[in-house]
Amino acid sequence: MKKRYIALLLAIYAVTLYFIVLTGVNNLADRLRSTDEEGADNKYTANGIYSNQLINNYDIYVDFDPIKKMYNSKQTIIYVNNTDTTLNEIYLHIYPNAFKSEATTPYIIDDYGTPYVHGFSKGDFQIYKLLVNEENTAYNIDKNNVTILHIKLKQPIKPKENIKIYMEYGGVLPRAQQRFGYGKDTYNFGNWYPIVAVYDDTGWNLDPYYKLGDPFYSDIGNYHVTIAAPKDMIIAASGNIISEKIENNKKIWKIEAMLMRDFAWTASKEFIKLEKEIDGILVKGYFIRNDQKVNTDALKAACDAIKVFNRVFGKYPYEQYSVIASNHIGGMEYPGLVFVNEKFYNNQLLERLKKVIVHETAHQWWYSAVGNNEVDEPWLDEGLTTYSEYIFFKEAYGKKYGENYFKKYIYNSYNMRKNQLNDEVIAKSLDKFKNNSEYHAVAYKKAAMFFYEIEKKYGERKMYNILRNYYMNYKFKNANTYQFLKICEEVTNDNFDHLANKWLYQK
């Protein structure tokens, strides 16, 4: 009897194991299905939070050679069709492909400086292999938009079904002090890997890598990334570094970045690291210069910003946050990580350094957690992030300080450029801005003035309720202008047509 019972258990185990292996890819979507914060069966957690959507899964192995400035990767994407449409094709953004020529590079020379401090430097990107569900599949790169990869599927994907895309590719970093490139001290990997384009109510979003702004739009995903690099390198990355070990004279980093809409990292031999926990979040500062006072002040600015925004907007949704001194001409945000120009890290520029850190930290709420189409509606995250600077300085240093900050850095900054603007429409796409100066004046400053007017008209309490509701309703999703204005109307119990027309759409 006992032998028959054991045999029966073994048979059941064998059948179950076979079923799991056989249906592993198809069932991944079910394993990634999760629930709301009240909890229910079949919930999937990440960083102590929940997702209520089926999400894409990225598994990436990257081997980095800093001498050749080259990386080679193997990448698997489990893509979930979250649309209500059967898909016969898939599009991916391959942003590094833009750096093959000066004509297509997105980095420009203007009043804000040039990333190419030594003249134009060519980057590269090559696809070596591409499989869909283990089969060779035809693909092509758009000749008129070299950052779009088109895959024609042999079998269509029905809603809620998924496919596995496997790729092998390599790239070369340009010598450029920007989000994708390298300088004297750091190697920056922003927008460096193939990422699935967003399919929304308008269809596939296939915008080019514009020279202005941050022309990105992406869905939340789960990332499992392995980085191999020389053992003397220090890596900072989105998400959590799970392990580090030495293998064959290289260091191997295992990183997990759950429920993030992008994954970025940077490498340097020079990094000095400081850490501090605030509200249960590990805040990490990576520095190039060994200036204890400046580095401590920079880390404090990041911690203070996290603390203020946690209270005003809602809790930061990840376990870690990294602020990185980088060879980057300004600041740049990614989920769980931001780049800040290492030249700002000196006593003479402490005010500017703090301002940039506060701005980029606010992007962890407005762009990272709550996403939006930064090509079609750049004002929605940049304007709200600039307005969040004012919130921080008001909450941290008092109302008088905050009002003075708003007047100096937002109101006056906008009015200094006002007479030089092509037009003052806030709600417009990147391709409608004449230059960087107009983009910053309108999408950042004037848009922040719109949020400021909402606060002055309806009061600070209702404005903070608007922001909290917006965050809680659209965390880990993509939002748009209509949805933000709808939140405004619900909180204020007022019609926003007149205010929106006055600020967002009129010239």
Helix content: 25-40%
What is the helix tally?
10
Query: Looking at the structure, what is the overall shape?
Result: globular
The description of the largest β-sheet is:
8 strands, mixed
- Secondary structure class reads alpha+beta
Give the CATH superfamily of the largest domain.
Answer: tricorn interacting facor f3 domain
Mean pLDDT: 90
- Low-pLDDT sequence parts: 1-52
What is the radius of gyration computed over CA atoms, rounded to a whole number of angstroms?
23 Å
Sheet with most strands: strand arrangement: 7-6-10-4-3-16-19-18
Strand residues, percent: 25-35%
CATH architecture of the largest domain: Sandwich
CATH topology of the largest domain: Immunoglobulin-like
CATH class (first level) name of the largest domain? Mainly Beta
Distance between the termini: 85 Å
Number of strands: 27
